[in-house]
Design a protein that fits this description.
Chain lengths: ~240, ~240
DNA sequence: CGAATGGTTGATGAAAGTCAATACGGGTGG
DNA sequence: CCACCCGTATTGACTTTCATCAACCATTCG
């Protein structure tokens, strides 16, 4: 770990809260990356969010998944292809502020600047891992690596393993992992048959033995290193801007 | 284009030159991303460079391609998997300086800070395009999109088209495009047969009609938008640090 | 000129995509 | 609380694409 985990200190958050508006989100809600007042920045507080683009031939690709603590800046999202920020989980919360305000804060508030840099570097690393996932792994390996990521980031201990919610439906998983919905379904079924996962309802996954799942993909140790330190969501202390 | 093209102004470069060491590189030369003095930063002056990682199962993946004007910071390269920076073209030149020095410069020199930010955002956009390339395009589309990128970035006008050098051999192309060397070879052959490309020697490509090549891939307009503005290599004016 | 490296190409197989029929889950209204 | 309905998920049959292996060819460099 090059840097301490990106735990926003409560102080920094309190200062940030002075400039931000809290937004409660529902599943599928889209958030404009910019308005007439210029580009926006978002801090994820609760839930999972994704950015996606739609290609000329109507294919959709999910570019990134964001977790609590992540900072999303309109200028950092692919500026060419039309990108959309969208709430993935049933309920979520983000803080929004103008990108210019965020830049200003970064210039004047050392604590915030450090937080921002650490988070952006963390995101770049995740992006790199994801590029590897898509470019170098088989379907099963891709699914396994993402499930491990979700388990470590968002999971809660249960019965000697981890339980977590899928922030994406089959089609969303497929769009993120560069696979087909049918293929994702087959792969998940196979993992369940082999006893590596169990599912209750459509979105609840329980993985009894994360190490066994880790054996399914060559990137598991890198993913563990990245996400273990970052597990804690935003610290409490500045709950309402 | 959100920002002016990242032409380093000669002034900024002159200031940067005071802190940097020039390194002439040959094909395949590896550059350490950090030393005992801490992480390094590089500014590409001439030639093409790549970063790659080697997966546990010995597969190699090229993560990024860098062109003149790009700034490479050790902390920004995937910090988990062991990454290597490597000169791709026969001869190249980079300036190296300690990452801490670069940070310091960015904090005190507004012109340089702007240059750095613009370049990092440009790189992020290219990274996003590349993720799309690998995740959403077929083999032929991937190859076409990369050739268009190279033509626009590094090509010189020739006979109503563009001529350029491949910075990577077949295996390198394959590692970057998430394909097999054999498959890349087949695809390039097919493009040549169809008259979209012609090749002289092993690494010289001539594309008579870039629009025709553009029709082979859905991302061509995004790529054109990104790379057209950035064609000019580093301006002259501070040639030796 | 000849060895070595890298490129091409054909035959084959495995993995994932596509299409279509069917099953399930979760919400709604009776 | 149950029955129904819609959207989503699963699964099978088939096709396409790409990877693999192996043999052969072309460049380049000593």
């Amino acid at each position: 770990m090059p840097d301490p985990p990106p735990h926003a200190s409560a102080d920094v958050l309190r200062r940030l809260a002075l400039h931000a508006t809290s937004i409660a989100t529902r599943q599928g809600q889209k958030l404009a990356l910019g308005s007439s007042h210029g580009p926006s920045a978002f801090l994820v507080r609760k839930g999972t969010f994704v950015t996606y683009v739609t290609l000329p031939d109507a294919r959709r690709r999910i570019m990134s998944v964001f977790y609590p603590g992540d900072i999303i800046g309109a200028p950092l999202v692919p500026p060419l292809v039309r990108a959309v920020l969208c709430a993935a989980t049933a309920s979520g919360e983000v803080w929004r502020l103008p990108w210019s305000r965020l830049e200003q804060l970064a210039a004047t508030d050392t604590g915030f600047a450090r937080l921002l840099t650490a988070n952006l570097i963390d995101q770049a690393a995740r992006q790199a891992i994801h590029a590897l996932r898509i470019g170098a792994l088989s379907g099963t390996e891709r699914v396994a690596s993402f499930l491990i990521e979700l388990a470590l980031r968002t999971g809660t201990p249960l019965d000697r393993g981890l339980a977590f919610e899928l922030p994406l439906a089959r089609a969303g998983l497929a769009d993120y992992l560069a696979l087909n919905p049918d293929t994702v379904s087959r792969i998940v079924s196979r993992l369940k048959t082999r006893g590596l996962l169990s599912q209750s309802g459509r979105r609840h996954i329980h993985c009894r033995d994360l190490d066994a799942l880790g054996k399914e993909c060559p990137l598991s140790s890198a993913i563990a290193e990245l996400h273990l330190g970052a597990r804690a969501p935003c610290p409490k202390g500045a709950d309402q801007p």
